[in-house]
Design brief:
The protein has a single domain (about 5-220), classed as 3-Layer(aba) Sandwich (Rossmann fold), CATH 3.40.50.300. The chain has helices at about 15-30, 45-50, 100-110, 125-130, 130-145, 160-170, 185-195, 210-220, and strands at about 5, 35-40, 60-65, 70, 90-95, 115-120, 150-155, 175-180. The protein is α/β, with parallel strands linked by helices. An 8-stranded mixed beta sheet has the order 3-4-2-5-1-6-7-8, with helices on both faces.
Length: about 220
């Protein structure tokens, strides 16, 4: 059965697509089996990262190579209606910001891991609204018994700053932690994703980014 990973936060611009794409890059290069990236965002940024074009239809599926397929799913349809999970080792879900959409995707797909990014460029918004996805996950845990591993990922923010905000949040999932912080490379990472359509580590200047994302997955998956 596929391991399902959701990248979510209720605020826009905080690094969901950046995280989803780089996680996918590591999974397809260092993990066994095939990975499926599901783009559940109307903007289809993760889809465009790999295809360099907008989707042709609401539910477009494309094989990128033998290790990676992508699926455009802006209507956030339950993925088992379109996909055979047994074909994949990993499924990464990149979603938009509204909490209702996050709840739908979680209820329909039951992800095993939830990664919540907080990046430097949107630091204040990302941290101030961090309690919202955590409250949603806690509510699902209480009402539905749903208990994924939740990992907060500081992208360019010191871990202790995130920890301080995290500790002040009263309602949190039981299985929740803060990952090691990535150094602040916000501008080049944004340029890599949205302009150059390349992983950050493809630039020799930032080749150590591969080690960060590899360690993130090795430690938490």
């Amino acid at each position: 059965m596929a391991r399902i990973i959701l990248c979510t936060h209720n605020s826009g611009g905080v690094g969901k697509t950046t995280l989803a794409v780089h996680i996918t890059g590591i999974l397809t290069s260092k993990w066994r089996g095939k990975t499926l990236l599901v783009d559940c965002d109307d903007q289809a940024d993760s889809w465009q990262f790999y295809t360099k074009r907008t989707p042709n239809k609401d539910f477009e599926y494309l094989e990128i190579n033998e290790k990676l397929a992508i699926f455009e799913n802006k209507n956030r349809e339950k993925i088992t209606r379109r996909i055979n999970l047994e074909e994949y080792q990993n499924i990464v879900l990149d979603i938009d910001s509204p909490l209702d959409n996050t709840v739908k995707v979680i209820v329909d797909n039951n992800p095993d891991f939830v990664f919540i990014p907080v990046n430097f460029s949107q630091k204040h918004k990302a941290l101030e609204n961090l309690f919202k996805p955590l409250e949603v996950l806690t509510s699902l845990e209480i009402k539905a018994g749903y208990s994924p591993k939740v990992i907060i990922v500081p992208l360019g923010i010191k871990q202790e700053i995130v920890s301080e905000k995290f500790e002040a949040i009263g309602t949190k999932p039981q299985n929740c932690c803060i990952a090691q912080a990535m150094k602040n490379v916000q501008m080049p990472m944004s340029e890599a994703i949205y302009k150059n359509k390349k992983y950050l580590w493809e630039s020799s200047q930032y080749s150590d980014a591969r080690d960060y994302f590899r360690s993130l997955l090795t430690e938490h998956l």
